[in-house]
Specification:
globular; 6-stranded mixed β-sheet; alpha/beta
C-alpha cells in the first residue's frame, strides 16, 4: 500500500509551552490506525496540526505526497482529510438534512460516493430525525451526524477525535460497528479513543504518545499481548 499520511519530526508549541517534540506518524492508504495516550499528552494537538488548525514549529506533514503543513484548513479538507472533532460541533441551527447537503462533495468523482442517502442507510436514526436541528439531537445522534457530515465530503482519510466519548454503551457499539464497516470498505481511518480493546479490533497499527513524544508504535497483536504497555502509558 502506498503512503497516505506522513508526519515527520513534528514540533508544536502554544506560545512558550511546547507540546509536541519530534513526533513521527505514518499511515498507508486503506489503513486503520490509532493515536493513543493519556489525556493532555498531545493527541488532539497532533490532529489539529494535521488538519491545519494549529501552526507547527518544526517538522513536516505530507498527505498523498503533498506537503500540507502551513496550508489552510479548507485546502487540507479539499485534499481529502475530514475531521470528526471532539465535542461533535454540530451547527445548532441547521437540520440534519442541511448539514449533509451543505458538506456534500465528490471531488474525486467516486462511483460509490458518500451521499446524504448513503449516510441515512448507515445511520437509520438520522433518517428519522432528518428535519431536526442540531441542538435537538441527543449526544449519540450528534456523533452520528458528525461522522456523516465528514463522510459526505468523501475523504481519503477520516480522522476521529474521541470517537465515542460520553456516549451511552449501546450507541458506542453502533459507532464501533460503523467504523468497522468503513474499515472493511477500505476507508483510511485515524482514531483517538480510550477503549483499547475496541481499537485493537478495529485498527492494524497503533502509536502511543507520552508528553508529546512517541513512546511506542506497533501492530495490534503486539499491543494486545503486552498489557504492561497499557498500564504504563494508558493508565489501564
Amino acid at each position: 500500500m502506498s503512503a497516505l499520511l506522513e508526519v515527520s519530526n513534528l514540533e508544536v508549541a502554544y506560545g512558550p509551552s511546547q507540546v509536541l517534540f519530534g513526533l513521527n506518524l505514518a499511515m498507508a492508504e486503506g489503513e486503520a490506525a490509532t493515536l493513543l495516550g493519556r489525556n493532555g499528552m498531545g493527541k488532539t494537538t497532533t490532529l489539529r496540526a494535521i488538519c491545519g488548525l494549529q501552526a507547527i514549529k518544526a517538522g513536516s506533514i505530507r498527505f498523498a505526497g503533498e506537503r500540507i503543513d502551513g496550508k489552510r484548513p479548507d485546502h487540507i479538507g479539499r485534499a481529502g482529510i475530514a475531521l470528526v472533532p471532539e465535542g461533535r460541533q454540530c451547527f445548532p441551527n441547521l437540520t440534519v438534512d442541511e448539514h449533509l447537503v451543505a458538506f456534500f462533495a465528490n471531488r474525486r468523482a467516486a462511483k460509490d460516493a458518500w451521499t446524504p442517502a448513503r449516510v441515512y442507510d448507515l445511520f437509520p436514526r438520522l433518517q428519522e430525525r432528518r428535519k431536526n436541528l442540531g441542538n435537538q439531537l441527543s449526544g449519540g445522534e450528534q456523533q452520528m451526524l458528525a461522522i456523516g457530515r465528514a463522510l459526505v465530503t468523501n475523504p481519503r482519510l477520516l480522522i476521529l477525535d474521541e470517537a465515542t466519548e460520553g456516549l451511552a454503551p449501546l450507541v458506542r457499539e453502533e459507532i464501533w460497528a460503523c467504523l468497522a464497516r468503513l474499515r472493511a470498505e477500505g476507508q483510511s481511518i485515524l482514531v483517538i479513543d480510550k477503549y483499547v480493546e475496541k481499537l485493537i479490533a478495529l485498527a492494524g497499527r497503533h502509536t502511543i504518545i507520552e508528553r508529546g513524544q512517541v513512546v511506542w508504535q506497533g501492530a495490534s497483536a503486539e499491543l494486545n499481548a503486552d498489557h504492561a504497555i497499557w498500564q504504563r502509558y494508558l493508565g489501564l
